[in-house]
Amino acid sequence: MRDTLQLRPPQPDDYHAWLPLWDAYNAFYGRHGELALPATVSQLTWQRFLAPAEPMHVLLAWRGGQLLGLAHYVFHRNTLMAHRACYLQDLFTVPAARGQGVARQLISAVLAQAQAAGSPSVYWHTRYDNAAARLLYDRVARNTGFVVYRHTF
Question: How far does CA 101 lie from the centroid of its chain?
Fold first, then answer.
């Protein structure tokens, strides 16, 4: 019998388990090698997850003592609603755990957190060519058709 998947917020000692998944997520989106995030940004991100006053959160998916996935989400003000919006910023599962419902359970847990916080919805985006993720996303949410633009300095 397989161990049950456990979803929980981070503990300070989880950093060394979280970091390889975070690095793999960033590499998937082209942030590796010369384009890799500086270590200081990853460390700051982790510190924000642990700070009670921060609007940034993470849920970690564990099974049998192994970290299989992460979901980073942020609550923020929004011009379209009275309540804070919830943005599922990052979602990642290790390749060996894909197709086992880990991402779906992480999404469900973020939805529950947002609902408990009074947010009327959760939104996220992915690359248009991330076909595997989009198969799941199309089952659990509505594609709004928006295109993301970014200007960097």
Answer: 15
pTM recorded for the entire structure:
0.92
**Strands, DSSP E only, in the chain?**
6-8, 56-63, 66-76, 85-93, 122-123
Domains along the sequence of the chain with CATH: 6-124 (3.40.630.30)
- Contacts (Cβ under 8 Å, ≥6 apart) of 12: 50
Model confidence at 151: pLDDT above 90: no
Q: Where are the alpha helices (DSSP H) in 29-101?
A: 39-50
Sorted by sequence, the CB contacts under 8 Å of residue 51 that are 6+ apart come out as none
Q: Encoding tokens for residue 8?
A: 């929980």
- Percent of the chain past pLDDT 90, that is, above it, reads 84
